[in-house]
Amino acid sequence: MSATVTGRVFNVQRYSLHDGPGIRTTVFLKGCPARCLWCHNPESQSFGPEVIRVETRCASCGTCETVCPHGAPPPGSGLCTACGECVDACPAGARELVGRESTVDEVMVDVLRDRIFFQDSGGGVTFSGGEPLAQPEFLRALLTASRGHGLHTAVDTCGFAPRENLLGLAPLVDLFLFDVKLIDDARHRDLTGLPTGPILDNLRALVDAHPSVWIRVPIVPGHTDDEADVAAIAALVGELPRVHHVSLLPFHATGGAKARRLGRPAPLESLAPPPPERMETLAGLFRERGLAVSIGG
Prior knowledge:
Layout: E1 6-16, E2 24-29, E3 50-53, H1 63-67, H2 85-89, E4 95-98, E5 100-103, H3 104-112, H4 115-121, E6 124-128, H5 136-148, E7 152-157, H6 163-169, E8 175-179, H7 185-192, H8 197-209, E9 213-219, H9 227-238, E10 245-250, H10 254-261, H11 276-287, E11 292-295
Parallel strand pairs: 2-6, 6-7, 7-8, 8-9, 9-10, 10-11
Antiparallel strand pairs: 1-2, 1-5, 3-4
């Protein structure tokens, strides 16, 4: 049955070192309910395919305007149907289609290329996004296929999903990477568009049901790096006895260039990443509670 299940994928990243233990292949599923101000993968937010324009490659030859039934409107205009005609025709490769409909078997062909590295490093496959739980049927089929090949499986989630989807898939997942951005509900809504209540309730339910959950905390200067905010996350994690590992993820500005290629604003593109000494200070808030902390992975 899994061969007939399809879903939308926008990237398969091989030799990933920051999405779980060992060397991993990370499969990025398209579509996300969140709109985080600092999103590193803005191309993941929409569920549908999108065309991006790489300005540095564009030769202004006009080929895209000739082949496009809409005159090659700029990305983000709302007029592009992502038909891909301009992508195929562009002689400079300045236009790319982000997001493709894939079968489980097609994804697994990519994943299994690095199987030898998984075995030697204790790695495996990680399903990320976007929000992978937003495509629950496809994710279930991918996890089932991965388990069938004896692969270690991880799911990277923002935690905003129906509880039945999260817990229903849990038996197929060896490791959950669960994002906790802020505890304060009003500020979380402002920065991500989502409430904290369902996310934190899902986290508690998942920890009760699953033995392996890692917490990931994005550290964005001026937004999520206040010591009181991080201390509140540390206090929460400290109350979850089955969570022993926390990763602090320093902000980087690569999402800004991607957003511009999609025709979207990039409000944090000029923001500098947090300095190492600041990351160490924040990591200390977790170590004080006896929690293992890594920075950047």
